[in-house]
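pasting for the record
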Amino acid sequence: MRFDAQACLALAPRRVYAPWIARSRVFAGLYLLVLLAACAGAGKSELSAGAVDSEARKRARVYLELASTYFADGMNSYALDAMQQSLAADNGLYEAHNLRGLIYMRMNEPALAEEGFRKALAVQAQAASVQHNYGWFLCQQGRMGEAMAMFSAALANPAYDARAKTWLTQGLCQAKAGQAADAENSLRMAFRLDPSNPVVGYNLALHLFNQADYARAQALLAPLNASQWANAQTMWLGIKLARKRGDGLQVTALSASLRSRFAPSPELSLLDKGVFDD
């Protein structure tokens, strides 16, 4: 699924559904991973709140919060400045190093991004959100073995409360690497943990469609297209799926809905051109 980069799945997993649907390019494959990485623990601490923060750490957290807000708004240079002020106030916040990695990852500076993630893990080796982000970074770099190790470490953390997100991300990485069976297993784990999440449901349906498992893809996609989370891309997949299944009535119904609800959209353009195998 494709997302607007300003949405934030990990920080507000239910609240952001409506903004996703408000944009025509909410859903689609691998760009989801960027969002997942960008939102995974950017400003959320996984440490216990037992100790009282020093004044320096309080300042660092204020700057970190500001940096996270800028980052969520796509303002990379402002986010970078605020993050650097956070680290200048207190270099011991793993969340700030994590955000540094995310910012540089978005800016296509892989060496600096990896440095940020490595420093975050040096400060807090069991930070599952960092392991998730670093795993996605490694996947993007084609370092699949290392990426899977990071995802496995995150999933093994009993305190980690975003397992569905990591199973989903891992599955999409496995699909990207051509590991279809492993990808399906991971996506099904994500669905089992969060069956009401439209992102998970769509991506599992898309994977099944790509594997020509049309009956199971339809079982997942039909409820999504009948819900408030339907959008141009879910309907487009539904149209292609109905064509594969020889269901002309469904093709007609979904085409009419796509035209009436999501015009203009790239999917409608493809429909009008009769391009069904993009």
